[in-house]
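S.,

Sequence below, as promised.
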Amino acid sequence: MCRFNPCTNRYCHYKHEDGQRGKFQDKVWTADGSHVSDRKFVDQDTVEELVVPGAEENAAMDESIA
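The prediction came back faster than expected:
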């Protein structure tokens, strides 16, 4: 039997009583649907904006030359 209560070692090889194991939230599946991939944008009806790195600098330089 493990002597620690709660046991926080997720790889502990000893036996544990009910409720003795620590909670490992990153390893527990829950059905509440609060996963990061379930997030949505605030306004779903807007057009997606394409952002290209360095495009603002090139646009600013083109305007200053013209």
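DSSP finds one helix and no strands in the chain.

Coffee later?
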